[in-house]
Design a protein that fits this description.
- The protein contains eleven helices and twelve strands.
- By secondary structure, it is an alpha+beta fold.
- The protein folds into three domains: about 130 residues, Alpha-Beta Plaits, CATH 3.30.70.1730; about 60 residues, Alpha-Beta Complex (Molybdopterin biosynthesis moea protein, domain 2), CATH 3.90.105; about 60 residues, no CATH class.
- A five-stranded antiparallel beta sheet has the order 2-3-1-11-12. The protein has a three-stranded antiparallel beta sheet with strand order 6-8-7, covered by helices on one side. A two-stranded antiparallel ribbon has the order 4-10.
- The longest helix has 22 residues.
- The two termini are about 35 Å apart.
């Protein structure tokens, strides 16, 4: 017979009530997957999120499940299947997309560990290892790296994929990566899933470049309006400019065929007309210099025990 707890300590009751309050007063509730990184790093990211009106809470999964049921906010029950493993919980009245992007941009390089399932493929670039001839050649060859001797040291002669995403990292490959100073993976916080305004959004959706899609759609819509002659207040300059260009082009064709076919004032238009307005997204006219990018674990192991709040 399974046992279901019906009483909780005063501390758990306080945590539960706080979670319920946050769920009921947040536009977005999400689940962040914790990876084995320093607690101080999580604290810094937590402070940055708070400055933007977000709250990051470390709490027991059982309490969060209970809080969702007790809060009774439509849509949040969709989070229940995702509450497993090492989690933190996000509460926000801003954009979940902005939070997901912030977390993605603040990942940290991480070494490979023996037995770890590779989240991405591992590629070792062509390089000179700086290591003299010896047993290291056999180690490199054992993971599929082609080698040769250059100026008395071992060189990897071709860029090679030594591990595909989803494969298990071997102890031998771990040793090679360490000797080469390669940290092939990233760790940090990942917004796995969020419910915003009752809709469940996964991490792929949250990290999609919607701004890019919108900009492309805007440009395509503008081009279609110009070609079809559909005039609005926003596109009038473009449509009329394109129409003028077509008229002038037609005048030029007629003049070339018969210089006396048109009155002189119309013929002169083909000579005096300004260049037609180019159809271009106004956003493209602005400078767009890009900014440079920069196993379940317990709270105690990660130094996260003090992060609730």
């Amino acid at each position: 017979m399974s046992y279901q707890r019906t009483t909780y300590s005063s501390r758990n009751v306080e945590t539960l009530n706080k979670l319920v309050d946050l769920i009921q007063n947040s536009q977005a509730v999400g689940i962040i997957k914790l990876e084995p990184i320093k607690g101080s790093v999580v604290q810094d990211m937590r402070a940055s999120l708070r400055n933007d009106g977000n709250t990051l809470v470390i709490a027991k999964n059982t309490l969060m499940r209970l809080a969702i049921k007790k809060a009774n906010i439509s849509g949040t029950e969709q989070l229940l299947p995702y509450i497993k493993g090492s989690c933190a919980f996000l509460f926000s009245n801003g954009s979940a997309f902005a939070v997901a992007t912030f977390l993605q941009e603040n990942k940290f390089p991480a070494p490979a560990r023996p037995g770890q399932v590779a989240p991405v493929s591992v590629v070792i670039e062509k390089m000179n290892t700086g290591v003299g001839p010896g047993s290291f050649i056999n180690e490199l060859n054992s993971v599929g790296l082609p080698t040769r001797i250059e100026r008395g040291t071992i060189a990897i002669s071709e860029t090679t994929t030594v591990l595909n995403a989803g494969e298990v990292v071997s102890r031998g490959l771990t040793s090679i990566l360490q000797r080469l100073g390669i940290t092939p993976f990233e760790v940090g916080l990942t917004l796995e899933v969020v419910v915003q305004d009752g809709q469940l959004l996964d991490k792929e959706t949250l990290l999609t470049d919607w701004a890019g899609y919108i900009a492309t759609a805007h440009q395509q819509a503008l081009s279609l309006a110009v070609e079809s002659g559909y005039v609005t207040e926003d596109n009038a300059d473009y449509v009329l400019g394109a129409a003028q260009a077509k008229v002038i082009a037609l005048i030029a064709v007629i003049n070339n065929a018969d210089p006396n076919a048109l009155p002189s004032d119309l013929a002169d238009l083909a000579i005096a007309a300004p260049e037609p307005t180019e159809v271009k997204d106004k956003k493209e006219e602005q400078s767009t210099e890009e900014e440079p990018e920069e196993e379940d674990v317990s709270e105690e192991d990660m130094g996260l025990g003090s992060l609730f709040g």
